[in-house]
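Researcher: Next entry: Plasma membrane ATPase (Nannochloropsis gaditana).
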Amino acid sequence: MSQAFSVRVHEADDDEEQHLKGEFYDTEGRISTNVGMQSLEDHNREIQRTIEAFRSASHTLSVRSLGSEGNSKSQVPNLQSVFDSLQITSQEGKADDRMSTADNGDGPKSVAAMAKALAAQRGEEYVHDLLKGEFYDDGGRITTNAGMQSEEDHEREIQRTIQMVRSATHALSVRSQGSEQRSMSRMQSLRAVFSSREDKEEEAKVPLDDLFDENDVPVTMTRTKTVTSLDSEGLSSALAAELLKKFGRNELPEKKKPKWLIFLEQLYQPMPLMIWAAIIIEAAIESWPDMGILLGIQFMNASLSYYETTKAGDAVAALKASLKPLAYVKRDGKFLSMDAALLVPGDLVLLGAGGAIPADCVVKDSQIDVDQAALTGESLPVTFFKGDSVKMGSTVVRGEVEATVEATGANTFFGRTAALLTGGDEVSNLQKLLMRIMIILVVLSMALCGIAFGYLLSRGETVRESLSFTVVLLVASIPIAIEIVCTTTLALGSRELAKDGAIVSRLAAIEDMAGMSILCSDKTGTLTLNKMMIQEETPIYVEGETQYTALRFAAMASKWNEPARDALDTLVHGAADLKSLADVQQIDYMPFDPTIKRTEGTIRLPSGETFKVSKGAPHIIMGLLDQTAQASVIEQCEKDVEGLGERGIRSLAVAKTKGSADGPWELIGLLTFLDPPRPDTKDTIDRARDFGVEVKMITGDHLLIAKETARQLGMGTHIENAGKLPKLGEDRKAPANLMDFFSYVEETSGFAQVFPEHKFLIVEVLRRGGYKTGMTGDGVNDAPALQRADVGVAVQGATDAARAAADIVLTKPGLSTIVTAIIVARTVFGRMTSFITYRIAATLQLLIFFFIAVLTMYPRDFQPESALEEWPAFFHMPVMMLMLITLLNDGTLISIGYDNVVPNTTPDKWNLKVLFTIAGVLGGVALLSSLLMLWVALNSHNPAGIWAKAGLAGLTYGQITSMVYLKVSISDFLTLFSSRSGGGFFWTNKPSGILLVAAGIACSLSTIMANAWPESRPDGVPTIGLARVAPKELSLYVWIYCLLCWFIQDAAKVGAYALLKRNNIFGINDVVAMKKADPSTAV
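Model: Predicted structure:
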């Protein structure tokens, strides 16, 4: 509640202004931010100043509130006497300078004395509530530990001081008025505000303008028990709605782009900008049909890209919404379950075992044990008592209490931590790659089109005709949909991952995960079960006893018929056969005590035999034995404990008396327990290695425990503690000599006893060393490392702060989901590689084909004398045909997101030189075959030509146009099937059914268009359908020719791959492989 209130003294006299000076207040009377950095003496002095200031402020307010000249004149002296009696004196010479409790008979001189005076009027219980808490002792003095709190707890206590003093002084001053007239209504209002402990259910309308700063919440309808106190009895829905407007939703702030802006962005990306330039040129030369076609292309691409982008974002948002936590809140006098995002400061919530703490809260009563590992890294639960503050992101492990919400959303502890993570969006590797490819292709296209434009002008063509052809060719050749298809492919991959329990919050992280070569994994809860379990290894020291009997004896040393009292009892009760103890009687029990460190039970069996059993730390239990008679047993036990300790295994000793309850103690055995690895973890790590990913253990647990876990999982025992790792500099950045530690970090199997900054530095040094690095985490303190990693993975049960920083959020426990995600990511990477290879090849084929055709083949030179119309001076196709090629190709390519791909067994990486080489081979064969067919068709009227020798009649120019259109279209689709199979022949990798159907539809449409095109002259180019004139089977000849060329094209691709790999040209064989830590190396 510290944000909701501040007090400003209006029209105070000079003395009151002096009370508000000093480092404890700012210039306007608010508490300054450095209150937690004082000495104890200064602190107590300032507390006195606080009381003085607020007494003065409340005095001023109460006097001004009388409103009656006649009554107030007579009452002011009485008021003055009341406040004079509240003067707080300090006794000089006392070292701690605490407030004196002396009373010289003139009136109360301290908080305690004030409390006595107040108790006479309000009752002892009210005053006790007013002064309770660790901030005061029983006498109402400020305790000596007030200056040794955290800044946040300190601030909370200061607020409590302010509220209490204000409440006490106002209650005294108002009740001392004795006025029955106009001051009565004002007094009731003040009591409604300041007497927050009264048992009232009604709400009071109180004008608070003089009490609140202009920046504070404008409360006019306020619940008396919540606004002025952290001891809430619940809010009304109306007040909660008002507070929600002030404080906002209880969730981390998330930047969201409006959908209209997303659509607009699709219109001013680099590729759309080029189309806009082409549209402007077409409009300038008044080529309206071409301009209309280009506009249609522009908005169709933008709409498709918008649809895929928003669909991916909506899917991620829906999946993340399913992870929203719930809270049990008291509203309108009733407890109900609601979205934790709707909590506001002042809400009364119920915190119970197993539940997450939904906001920063103050415990109202009783006590609870809270697991704060996600916040502080502490492995053991922390007990919180009445008045303590528990933080959002932690989990209740034992107990049930009511608590008052004190901070929500970005104002909570981990909300402020998450705010430190905000920054500019980093451009992903995929975006950089696509940009490089587009720049190369655009520069090449502009260069060749520029040359063609100049050449046409030099041959006498008009500027308008030359420019129209050049612009359309440029638009057709650039990869407009390259980002759309990649986004679609990634979005489809994210949905596939979601089915396996991995929610992707950043699509480009899928591409990063495909190249990941090191995964830094937390131990507890990820590699292990996060649950202590009895191990099979059980040293026994009494003949005839077994693990089964040792567990029974251990259970007898506890209250086995009652709920487990601690973690060890829970462990034993879960493993022992408790049903067999139904007839066993426990006649005496000694619970665990920190001074004796063991439990003991006196047992009577059905047979009448009586004995004692005890369980506890081995060295304590061994102390019960006869040191001389059982020296050998003690020696063996010590060796066993030492050996287990070296492996990080904990042990619990069990002993019983022999013969009777007063007989000698004998050591039954040692129960060993450990947080064991998950059943599937070892297999998962082996699978990760099969895919070239090394898993490093990064844990805050003890070194010996980390080594034992690594040994069981086959991760090697070269585990180091964090002592040798570097530390962040004073500027909280990585040290300049960070890379000096690279070899050390690279060669280890993992690290133990690490802090969050170590995780960050481990990730940073591996990234700088050239590894794509993944990092798992679950806590607020893991957030910086998760954000810094190439792939940050928030494991199941992670805090909102960790989820916000992570790229992937797991909804299933363990590592198996991560390995599945690696396989899916590499499948997606393979699909994108196929598409990008094809897109480069298609661009080269179309662009270079027309460039060479324009420069070398002149249709008029081949025109027969019998031609009914003049052939063009240079070869080109109608704009509509070029756009159809582009649209059908891009539409088909979206289906590549569903294609079958065999994932690589090594981390993927982009190699642009190899991509352009293979694409050049594929595109080169296709364009050469297209040039050959164009030349044969143009030369079809030559009696000595190939066409005439085949017995075929000469072709019209309209037929030639349709033939080339069909050839380029079919070659493009077939090139896709060659590019998707990598270094193998196209038949080695079966395409998906969706891809086959999409390609089949596109090829069919292209064939139909080529055959049925009406006789016309679009853009001045004679065109007619192949089926409209003889030979009507001409499209069949084109198909056969395309298939033959496809086999040649595919063989050339396989040969190119073989040549590159045999000579490791362009580093095609180089992969980033993890240097395995030597498992035999011990530390």
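Model: Note for the record: The chain has 37 helices and 25 strands.
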